[in-house]
Design brief:
By secondary structure, the protein is of the alpha/beta class. The protein contains 12 helices and 14 strands. The strands form 2 sheets. Strands 9-10-11-8-7-6-5-4-3-12-13-14 form a 12-stranded mixed beta sheet. The protein has a two-stranded antiparallel sheet with strand order 1-2. The structure holds S-adenosylmethionine and iron/sulfur cluster (2 copies).
Length: about 350
């Protein structure tokens, strides 16, 4: 049921809106491009995302002004947290201009997820534009493992240089996302934990998910969160930390000796759909209410067709009110083969 009130931030008559399972709309992930300079084997396998792959054309992408306008409308519906993502968001030209526009929206927690390849060059400009914190994906410190996973021979040192540049620019906290795939990088779990422990960087392990339909996902490829924690715990004892808010994606653990914490995003083995307050906006302006959705809802058509803010707000509320997504809770051998949108398109 939606409750409506006047919201001063956008001038839109909107308000907090909840879905059929009582989940409010609180977070928005905005994909600014479907392109990427990596071909991570679990996300954009080369055989599919090759030379002939049809990425979105420039005019199909939402402009920065369109993204800003939609973001203001979403905040009037209760969105408090924005994550800019992709594809690789730092490939979008002049991204710092968009960051500046979003950073001026009052009361928003603004962050960005990147593969870190272009971060050394851009970290300071992003910080100056108003970015508060950042997440960098890094799947191994072993260069052979890392290059095999990004599949474009991108060296780990350059991502580490990006992380250092982010720290020097004052982006904090810095989170590091490590996707763990069985037989590929599980041996990197403990060395990564060891390397980032005590540095203030928050390392988070992600279970490999069956997003999209190109990565050939199999349950056997998933390294369960419990196993990841057990591996670290053997060498560096851990204890659980209470979640800091409802809907926190990562389950948190701290080192018993006080040297920091790690998180695990157990979307496969410990689904957290019941607290999922996230919407996703694709680079061409489609609204998705689940990472595993089969179809989006076109907001670009409304923007470019002259709809008012109130009309767009109404359309968003109408989509959210009927939302009943809980894919990870009902994942089974039957659901794995369903048509799904690609992670690089929808934004991780
Ligand atoms: N290119 C940026 C990056 O890699 O950080 C942002 C987009 S990427 C899609 C966002 C996150 O999604 C990354 O941390 C990546 O590890 C994660 N991801 C991609 N494919 C995944 C999969 N099949 N299962 C779980 N996480 C995945
Ligand atoms: Fe690119 Fe990120 Fe997907 Fe890797 S995970 S292919 S860096 S979008
Ligand atoms: Fe949210 Fe869908 Fe993931 Fe469940 S499967 S947590 S509803 S995005």
């Amino acid at each position: 049921m939606a409750q409506f009130c006047r919201d001063g931030r956008s001038g839109v008559t909107a308000g907090s809106v909840t879905d059929t399972l009582g989940r409010p709309l609180r977070d928005l992930r905005i994909s600014v491009t479907d392109r990427c300079n990596f071909r991570c084997v679990y996300c954009m396998p080369k055989e599919v995302f090759g030379r002939d792959y049809q990425f979105l054309e420039r005019e199909q992408l939402l402009t920065f002004e369109e993204i800003e306008r939609l973001t203001r409308i979403f905040t009037a519906h209760g969105v408090e947290k924005i994550r800019v993502t992709g594809g690789e968001p730092l490939l979008r030209r002049n991204l710092e201009r968009l960051i500046g526009m979003l950073a001026r929206i009052p009361g928003l927690d603004l962050t960005l997820t990147t593969n870190g390849s272009l971060l050394a060059k851009q970290a300071q400009a992003l910080k100056d534009a108003g970015l508060q914190r950042i997440t960098v994906s890094l799947d191994s410190l072993d260069n052979d493992v890392f290059t095999a996973m990004n599949d474009v021979d991108f060296p780990v040192d350059r991502v580490l240089a990006g992380i250092e540049a982010a720290a020097a620019a004052g982006l904090a906290p810095i989170k590091i996302n490590m996707l763990v795939k069985r037989g590929v990088n599980e041996r990197s779990v403990v060395p990564m934990a060891r390397a980032f422990r005590g540095t203030g960087r928050i390392l988070r392990f992600i279970e490999y998910m069956d997003v999209g339909h190109t990565n050939g996902w199999r349950m056997d490829d998933v390294v369960p969160a419990a196993e990841i924690i057990a591996r670290i715990n053997t060498e560096m004892p851990l204890e659980p930390v209470e979640p800091s808010y409802r809907g926190e994606v990562a389950t948190r653990w701290r080192y018993r000796d006080g040297s920091g914490e790690v998180g695990v995003i157990a979307s496969v083995t410990q689904a957290f759909c019941r607290d999922c307050t996230r919407a996703r906006l694709s680079a061409e302006g489609s609204l998705y209410t689940c990472l595993f959705a089969t179809k989006g809802h076109d907001l670009r058509g409304l923007l470019r067709g002259g709809a008012s803010d109130a009309e767009i707000a109404g359309a968003i509320a109408a989509v959210w009110r009927v939302r009943d997504d809980r894919y990870s809770e009902i994942r089974s051998s039957e659901t794995v083969g369903l048509p799904k949108v690609e992670m690089s398109y929808i934004g991780g």
